[in-house]
Sequence to fold (355 residues):
Amino acid sequence: MSSNQYLIGASVRHQIFMQRRAGGIYNDLIPLLNSMQKDIIARLNTDLTDFQLYRLRSLQVEIDSIITEYADQITGQLSLDFNDLSEYEVGFTQRMLNTAVTVQTAIPAAEQIASIVTDTPIKLISGKATKQFVGVSGLVDEFERSIKREIAGQVAILPIVQSGAIEGATTDEIVRNITRITGKASKAHAKTVVRTATNSIGSEARKQTYIANADILEGEEFIATLDSRTTAECSGFDSEVFDVGVGPYPPLHYGCRSVRVPKIKDEFKIPGLEGERASVSGPVSASKTFGGFLRDQSAEFQKEYFSKFKDGDLKYDLWKKGGLPIGKFTDAEGAAYTADELRALEPMAFEKAGL
Fold:
């Protein structure tokens, strides 16, 4: 084993800690989310005796205002948490590097660390679509827009109130139906935002630390999580090595758990270090790729993995029978190819698989 295997193991273990840290940050938001829900309930209770359309639309504007107020508070609280997190991640990354190299490493300049939370660009992929944000505030803005669409938009409140009125439901029953949506949607969105932002902050902190030490690195290796929940975007990049500061950085999508790990130049490695990767079936060698991990699993597991992708059965056959590597199912940006695009790009795999 070598310094590189050690760093893979250390980084993957630390990524698990980061997911737990995200859970703690999310738990800190629950009082705010509960207060937002109570304020929405109070506003609904005062106005739902009048089912006229113009009043409901006015009510939606007022609920929008409540959501905006709490979104601002969430942004402020997350900014404090993530400023602390970015400083911690820079320090941790430097300590991790110091354990694996023969020289003393550097840390980014103070202004670079300070800008991680506010200026980090975040690009999230979903199929062929992408969303781009700048900083944690950009993610929270999307959270706010999503909650308004699902809770306060005409899609939610108007049909619930109107159908309740037609069916003879009481005001209390209508309010309960609406607030059930507010609680479920707001907390689900908040949890996703926190997990994604936590990975983004950690990833950018590590990136800036690696850039500050680029002279001792030969690149960065993309490491995906070895289980059935890993997306095509992440599994496609697994074990690929990029130049320092170049190429795709996690998070690639909402809830992304991947990480990029530095590869040390030979002359700076400490010999004899060992490392492992965590996987759903237990620790495996740090040199194990996602494709190799998937080959070792049962046919049931393999089919389950491909089942969540569009044209999953076809892609399973291309991989299993056609010998198409897992990285060939996505483009250079991580977006999944369609079946037609794969047929044009990989005709031999289709022929070999009998498709």
